[in-house]
Design goal:
Layout: H1 6-35, H2 44-47, E1 50-59, H3 62-75, E2 79-84, H4 91-106, E3 111-117, H5 118-121, H6 125-132, E4 142-147, H7 152-162, H8 179-186, H9 195-201, H10 204-215, H11 218-238, H12 248-254, H13 257-266, H14 269-286, H15 290-297, H16 317-320, E5 329-333, E6 337-341, H17 347-350, E7 360-363, E8 366-371, H18 373-387, E9 393-395, H19 396-402, H20 406-421, H21 428-442, H22 448-474, E10 511-524, H23 555-574, E11 578-584, H24 591-600, E12 609-615, H25 624-640, E13 649-654, H26 656-666, E14 678-681, E15 684-688, E16 691-695, H27 701-705, E17 709-714, H28 718-733, E18 737-739, H29 749-766, H30 779-803, H31 814-819
Parallel strand pairs: 2-3, 3-4, 7-14, 11-12, 12-13
Antiparallel strand pairs: 1-8, 1-10, 2-5, 4-9, 5-6, 6-8, 10-17, 11-15, 13-18, 15-16, 16-17
């Protein structure tokens, strides 16, 4: 063998040194890249939420997801914990409620806790009290609580709205310029009171006002305010010495000003705009005559008044966030089995298209999980923290103290009696006065009988819906449905085997199995989630701030933020493509997500990352404003960052015609009716390379700024991600989703406006707005509303322009605050 010369060996040694140097250099760079990856090591906020799902399924099909929930209920041993935004009594929810009642009937020690959203579910309060009263063993085994009970400031607002200055409460004998000050002085009694103490101080009128507010019953609001200051309002429209002389027709219009003015100040964005429209129209007709009336209304409406510390009475967080929702979706049995995701409890989430559900059938994603002991503890403790969060959670007994719904039943009774008892020639104001007099007389009687009757009605509805589900859906085998019992779809006692093949027509995969998978339970809640605050008294947090998500309880969005950055770091480390997929029914990204997407599409920072978005189209969504806003945001991103116009970014929308065709071809009913519920995307899934989030949080402002949410974040799950991606490939192949970059690819917002106007015109035709008799006299209002909505969209573009000039986000976001209620 030929020996190398000393010079050759020396050269070889140098080569080895160089290779080693490069290797160590690359290793060092790799370590730096890993250090820049937020999820390279589990951060503290996630570390305590890690568990193992010993057996799990990602559930795509509605019937299958419902069958698994029923299976969880049937096989629970000691207790069930449920939390849902929507728990509507209809066919599927009646069947689910029946399963709950069967559990308590079979075991006197079995307990059920159900936490629902106050805003959505208050109108059905006596259905939930009917549930609590089902006591087959003579004891209460089901308890229902409501999230986001009215705070002390909301109680003060209700009091102010219903205090009449000529009333006995404050001793003022006539309306005076000091009326507002007298009201403010009266409300001092609430200063320093705890919530339960404040509820005990409430007037009857304030209680009725809250009942009307949460039930969205105009009569409740009207009767409550009339009780306190009807004489003042009438005096304003009749006392010619105090106000300009007006005609009878003008009086009829001015009666409505109070309600409109209140809505313009306190409603959500859409309600505010509508009320402002009507106020503006009145102003056009009456000009300066309107001003004295609005000035007078400040004695009724507290928006310009100050608290003791000088702050505006109504400028407080409780008022700004009065419509925060409990948006969690969870059923947990015995700390052993759980299911969470995007589905609420209603037909639209638990059925295929059929003639029992004629509006929407939602396409969604849930996760069914067998938990290890750690996971069971995590989910139970997180649930109980919300369940016991008394400053925001009310029992049905609490609600009876501050918003007794029985008085609304009494108002309905008085209104019906007035139709027969009051003279027929009265004008609207006089009719209301007559009905109010009857109501005042009825106040001497108890509402208990009316409440009992209402609960009986709910019981009758429950039985009817239960029979309807069993007879008109469960037992039928029409529309490619070949099963007649839910355990034919999902049976945990039989190896989870589906004993009958079925198709949901959208894709061939109905479930994706998972075994022994590490997961992280993540949630958004109204209190600080930092490690230092665990186990301590939790004060309510409002909204969020970039960089302080954990302190504001927004763990889900912190996970997303870190996962975006992690995907970029991994792609740079491996020099291989990393795909991020956003599969969201409601896509209108927060300012933080906007910046994350913009960074991902920076060819210098993340050249190997691709971004795909799958979302609703204007035609398939049930929340149209979200799509318009999201398009504005994406149009500006595409305009400012040319990488969005490359293959690295793809944007898909669900095609309305194809989904309609799916319904017509596969779900026509026995009598040939094809106008059954149409498909709409409701899924909330985010994929970051091999990591995936599945839960209840939408990729829009409410989920970040306002609502509670929950889900699971699953790291390093390439098989699961690959299986989920197959669904997208199938949807694309069937043209159920179509490339829609053209819908956001405009050089400027003015060009996009032309498309928006076409889309609005199509929506008006779709809902036959121009043909409705009820809209004949409101076209001016509608046109004004549309102009105001366009102005909001222009403001979105303006805020996007400001936002993308920022090198670093910090603190509260004007963009997020602007759109949080949509």
């Amino acid at each position: 063998m030929q020996q190398s010369s000393p010079s050759t060996r020396k050269t070889s040694n140098y080569s080895i040194v160089i290779v080693l140097f490069l290797a160590f250099t690359l290793l060092s760079c790799s370590q730096k890249l890993l250090l820049n990856s937020p999820l390279a090591t589990t951060p503290d906020y996630l570390a305590h939420n890690k568990f193992v799902a010993e057996k799990a399924f990602v559930l795509k099909d509605n019937d299958l997801a419902f069958a698994s929930k029923i299976d969880i209920i049937k096989n629970a041993k000691k207790e069930l914990r449920l939390i849902y935004y929507i728990y509507d009594l209809d066919e599927t929810t009646a069947f689910m409620t029946h399963a709950l009642l069967e559990k308590i009937k079979a075991d006197k020690d079995f307990k059920v806790k159900l936490l629902v959203d106050y805003q959505w579910n208050y109108k059905n309060l006596d259905f939930f009290r009917w549930m609590e009263n089902q006591q087959p063993n003579g004891i209460q085994q089901i308890e229902v609580r409501f999230y986001n009970r009215p705070a002390v400031s909301i109680i003060k607002f209700a009091e102010f709205m219903t205090i009449g200055c000529a009333g006995d409460k404050i001793g003022v004998q006539e309306t005076t310029p000091n009326c507002a000050a007298e009201k403010t002085n009266y409300l001092k009694k609430y200063d320093g009171l705890l919530l339960n103490e404040a509820e005990a101080e409430m007037s009857l009128e304030a209680k009725i006002f809250l009942a009307g507010f949460y039930s969205k019953d105009p009569n409740g609001l009207l009767f409550a305010t009339q009780l306190g200051y009807a004489r003042e309002l009438q005096n304003m429209t009749e006392n010619t010495a105090a106000t300009p002389t007006i005609t009878e027709s003008e009086k009829d219009n001015l009666k409505k000003v109070m309600k409109l003015y209140w809505t313009a100040k306190t409603g959500n964005n859409a309600q505010k705009i509508q009320a402002q429209i009507q106020l503006s129209i009145i102003g056009l007709f009456y000009g300066d005559q309107l001003k004295p009336f609005l000035n007078g209304l400040e004695t009724i409406l507290p928006f310009s008044l100050k608290n003791m510390d000088g702050s505006a009475m109504m400028a407080n967080n409780e008022m700004d966030y009065v419509t925060d929702y409990s948006h969690h979706k969870l059923i947990l049995a015995d700390k052993e089995v759980a299911q969470l995701g995007g589905r609420n409890c209603a037909n639209a989430y638990h059925m295929h298209p059929n003639d029992l559900e004629k509006k929407y059938i939602f396409m969604d994603t849930d996760v069914y999980m067998h938990l290890d002991s750690i996971g069971g503890d995590i989910l139970q403790k997180s649930y109980d923290e919300l369940w016991n969060y008394t400053q925001m959670v009310a029992t049905t007994t609490d609600i009876e103290k501050h918003a007794p719904i029985g008085y609304l039943y009494l108002i309905n009774k008085a209104t019906k009696m007035a139709e027969a008892a009051c003279p027929k020639n009265l004008n609207d104001l006089e009719k209301q006065g007559c009905a109010l007099q009857i109501f005042v007389q009825l106040l001497n009687s108890s509402t208990e009988a009316l409440v009992t009757e209402k609960q009986k009605e709910w019981g009758t509805k429950y039985e009817a819906f239960l029979q309807s589900y069993q007879n008109n859906y469960l037992s039928k085998t029409i529309n490619a449905k070949r099963w007649t019992s839910l355990d034919m779809l999902f049976d945990s006692n039989n190896g989870y085997v589906q004993n009958t093949a079925f198709s949901n027509t959208l894709h061939s995969v109905n479930d994706i199995p998972i075994a022994n998978q590490e997961m992280f339970y993540v949630q958004n809640v109204p209190f600080n989630l930092s490690i230092l605050k665990r186990g301590k008294l939790k004060n309510r947090k409002f909204g969020s701030e970039y960089g302080k998500e954990i302190e504001h309880g927004k763990m889900i969005h912190k996970v997303w933020e870190d996962a975006f950055n992690d995907a970029c770091a991994k792609s740079n480390l491996t020099n291989k493509p990393v795909e991020i997929i956003i599969h969201q029914g409601y896509f209108s990204p927060t300012e933080g997500v906007v910046h994350e997407m913009n960074k991902l599409m920076n060819k210098n920072s993340c050249p190997n990352v691709t971004l795909k978005i799958y979302t609703n189209s204007i035609g398939t969504t049930d929340l149209t404003p979200i799509n318009f806003i999201g398009r504005r945001q994406m149009q500006y991103l595409l305009q400012k960052n040319k990488e969005f116009d490359t293959d690295r970014f793809q944007y898909f929308e669900y095609d309305k015609e194809r989904l309609t065709q799916e319904v017509a071809d596969n779900f026509s009913t026995e009598n040939g009716v094809k106008e059954v519920g149409s498909f709409s995307l409701h899924t909330k899934v985010m994929i970051f390379g091999d990591d995936i989030y599945i839960g209840s949080a939408n990729a829009e402002f409410r989920s970040y700024m306002m609502d509670t949410n929950n889900g699971v974040f699953i790291k390093d799950a390439p098989e699961l991600v690959a299986a989920y991606k197959k669904l997208f490939a199938e949807l694309e192949a069937k043209h159920i989703v179509v490339e829609a970059k053209h819908s956001i690819k405009f050089d400027n917002a003015a060009q996009l406006r032309i498309q928006e106007e076409k889309d609005v015109a199509a929506l008006l035709d779709r809902y036959a707005i121009n043909e409705r008799e009820s809209m004949a006299n409101r076209k001016a209002e509608l046109e004004f509303f549309i102009r105001q909505f366009y102005a909001t969209l222009d403001q979105v573009t303006a805020e996007m322009k400001k936002s993308l000039k920022k090198k670093k986000l910090k603190g509260p976001s004007k963009l997020d605050e602007l759109l949080k209620v949509f």
